[in-house]
Specification:
The chain is an alpha+beta fold. Helices cover about 35% and strands about 20% of the residues.
């Protein structure tokens, strides 16, 4: 199912771990609504860079989220978060975060994770005000992006 011009539901639900463990990683109706909202934001990112997103982790059902060792509070479970790199920018993660941060794209959190991928989340409900937090996560912990 195509969610936007360039973002499909299958991209946002694909998982090698789910395949290996036989986990059915399918969103419910509420999660699908969130994934539609998220995909609109991801489409804006794609359009900003004029390049494909390489999604490493989008939606995770609770069982998959547990299998990858993530917290129950993860926005991936809600269908509100995605980890990705951008074709042609895979070795420029910090620059990718800066370009998104400086754009008019609306996000809740934008995280440079281990200088290896970008995590972008939207609010859990369409009416919630986005925090626009820009963070860095590395082996030392989490801090505001600088």
């Amino acid at each position: 199912m195509q969610l936007t011009k360039n973002i499909s539901l299958s991209e946002l639900t694909a998982s090698n771990i789910a395949e290996r463990k036989g986990i059915k990683n399918q969103p419910n109706d509420v999660q699908l609504i969130n994934l539609r909202r998220l995909s609109k934001t991801l489409q804006e990112v794609r359009d900003l860079f004029n390049a494909p997103l390489i999604i490493s982790s989008g939606f995770r059902c609770k069982q998959l989220n547990d299998a990858v060792g993530s917290k129950d509070s993860s926005f991936h479970i809600k269908g509100c978060a995605c980890d990705f790199t951008i074709s042609g920018w895979r070795d420029k993660i910090r620059e990718t975060v800066i370009k998104i941060k400086d754009s008019p794209i609306v996000f809740d959190q934008l995280i440079c994770e281990y200088d290896s991928w970008v995590h972008l989340s939207i609010t859990n409900a369409a009416m919630d005000k986005p925090r626009r937090n820009v963070l860095t996560i590395n082996k030392s912990g989490t801090s505001f992006f600088s």
